[in-house]
Structure prediction request, 248 residues.
Amino acid sequence: MADDLGERQLVLSLFPGIGLLDMAFEAEGFCVVRGPDLLWGGDVHAFHPPEGRFDGVIGGPPCQAFSRLRHLVQHNGLETAANLIPEYERVVREAAPTWFLMENVPDAPLPVVDGYKVHAQLVSNREDAGGVQERTRRFSFGTVDGRQLVLPFPLPPVQQAWAPAACASGGYKPGIPTDRSARARFLGWKTEAAFRQTCASQGLPEGFDLPPFTVAGKIKAVGNGVPLPMGRAIARAVVLTMTSARAA
Prediction:
């Protein structure tokens, strides 16, 4: 669909992780170039993109600092990841794209980049994108003229049964009711079956795998990503919005 913009859009992906949001944009016809990520030994602080080469910038800076589960993480004696939204803003300023899109948790602050007007909206993977999993994220879309993302009409879920949000901390052990203790749900179950369940709830194709990772690492990596139905809906929305002659 990105070909409707006149030529194939070149997009820079920041904080790509294992690339689930990238996968969604590529499925909609965008050409995605991945920036550095800590998961692969990269350092965004040392990254400086060329100016004017990218049509768009996408990405989701680490969200632990703004997650509603951060107090539980801190209670367990762990540190939340640093706020890297300022680095996202810096890279966007240096790249000077036509548009940018930042994905994050609902309570995260909006990105501020000189010369761009930002419109943010909450998107439900199930209600707005036709996914099975119930998961809500906030997408901040920045353009010079302040366009608002136009979400396409969603397809119905693959199955009507409601599914809980996939968590980086793990899925649910088969046969164990989901109404067990909050601690059990938070800790999850680091099993291959839980990984397959996490992949299914994220909308990934059957057989998707991350061979270099441990099972726990695979669950964490997939659970941290943007659900594929949500990502594809957002990618289509970018096409619809940028081909519209009307600014918000």
Summary: Helices lie at 20-27, 70-75, 85-95, 182-187, 192-201, 215-223, 228-242. The mean pLDDT is 82. The chain has seven helices and six strands. The two ends are 22 Å apart (CA to CA).
